[in-house]
Amino acid sequence: MADYIAIEHSPALFGRLVASGAKNSVLKLMAASLLIEGTTVLQNVPHIADVEIMSQVLQVLGVDVNWTAPHELTLDGHHLTSHTAPYELVAQMRASTAVLGSLSGRCGQARVALPGGCNIGSRKIDMHIAGLEALGAEVRIEHGYINVAAPEGGLRGAEVPLEFPSVGATENLIMAAARAQGTTIIKNAAREPEITDLVTFLQEAGVAIEGAGTSELAITGATAVHEVCHRVIGDRIEAGTFLVAAAMTRGDIEVEGIDPEHLDVVLRKLEMMGAQIERGDDSIRLYGADELKAVDIQTLPYPGFPTDMQAQFMAADAVAEGSSIVTENVFENRFMFADELGRMGADISIEGHYALVKGGTLLSGAPVVSPDLRGGAALVLAGLVAEGTTTVHDIYHIDRGYEDFCDKLASLGARIERCSEPD
Ligand code: UD1
User: Which of 49, 149, 271, 342 has its CA 20 to 30 A from that of 80?
Assistant: First the structure.
């Protein structure tokens, strides 16, 4: 039975909800548990499909992974039994490649399937490989696998300049460097809050790291690391998705468990659209405006506008007053959901990595297919303001990264239901 989501035109969203733990943080923290010859406890872990896949990857490597409370995962990495992350799992979730750095750091060897393309672009891995080579590893690509072998005595600290602040490459290099000899300097490092969460986790494990939140990180490898109990940061993209939903429906919601600083540019864009925002210490309240104004968006590495919020804003722009240009600078092929939105009546023309969105459309409910995780969420948001019924299919994409998406929206008053259909 494949599930789908049915959405009716909904009233203004109203109420309060708590953000789940960040998908893009927890997957990397789970990979980092491989560095610890002991137990890692992660709290505020979301129940999402990607966490299950990462658990399977770690189990194949010999980590004992158990839910020890509703949102608490305990990972026992005392005895690793393999250093191979197989294709069947890596193909399901590209973030599995995060074990490349931690396996290389702990075991001195790693064999990880090449992830290949995915539906938002080719997502290359050359910077991860060049970085590991700079730490002294020999890297060979054979039979669809990346094979990493550290020199005798293990990886050695080095200076690694990144040509682009890649999140994945920065994370893999931090993890590899955490158990290398000496100090590694990563220049032009990514600065996403999830990187800072990984740095905090490793500092708690006893790894000396300087420069958290900046584009230059200095990691001094530790020969021994301690067991860690760590609380995952709130999911800024999940929180941002709900805030856009509230803005689109002219609602009034408060999201708790999220640092407003992590969403600064997103909140500014929502203000430019007319919403009023109140930033709390660990919460954000949004009061929607009666008239939503279109805004231009340009995705960039953090602290720029996140690529993971592009689709949700395009859905909002499609129904806002005025025209806007959405520029996707991080990934190719990330406009696929625009065709589905077009089936609901949106006026969007794509030219390379630019999309021209003519707003002011009253969308009409239609059956649509979720092309990827954030595109799927954006189609659900469109369904909230469309006339009639929208059904969003292929929602396994949404399940990868949103915990209880329908229930959370329904708790704010959305007319939404998860349904099953025969295969
Ligand atoms: C990206 C996002 C991150 C988001 C995550 C999940 C950015 C900069 N990164 O991280 O915020 O949380 O998706 O959706 O917004 N690249 C190379 N060679 C490499 C590595 C990357 O050319 O070795 C290119 C990619 O093809 C892509 C860009 O760099 O065009 C960004 O990649 P990267 O930040 O590594 O992607 P993710 O780690 O998946």
Answer: 49
Residue 403 Cα to ligand 1 middle (Å): 23
**Residue 31 to residue 100: CA distance in whole angstroms:** 9
Q: What are the CA-CA distances from residue 78 to residues 109, 326, 389 (Å)? A: 17, 48, 52
Q: Which two tokens stand for residue 382?
A: 């469109």
Chain segment 32-91, per-residue pLDDT in tens: 999 999 999 999 999 999 999 999 999 999 999 999 999 999 999 999 999 999 999 999
Q: Decide if 156 contacts 131 (C-beta within 8 A).
A: no
* Cα–ligand 1 centroid distance for 301 (angstroms): 9
Task: State phi, psi for 109 to the nearest 5 degrees.
Answer: -150, 150
**Is residue 118 predicted with pLDDT exceeding 80?**
no
Kindly state the tokens that stand for 325.
Answer: 């240009």
Instruction: Please give the DSSP secondary-structure letter assigned to residue 310.
Output: H
DSSP H helical segments within 252-394, as ranges? 264-272, 310-319, 336-343, 373-385
Q: Please report the atom of ligand 1 found closest to the CA of residue 123.
A: 26
Residues 92-97 have a mean pLDDT of 90
| Substitution candidate for ligand 1 out of 93, 330, 353 with most atoms within 8 A of CB | 330
Give the residue numbers marked as catalytic: 118
d(CA 345, CA 341): 7
Q: 230-271, pLDDT tens digit by residue?
A: 999 999 999 999 999 999 999 999 999 999 999 999 999 999
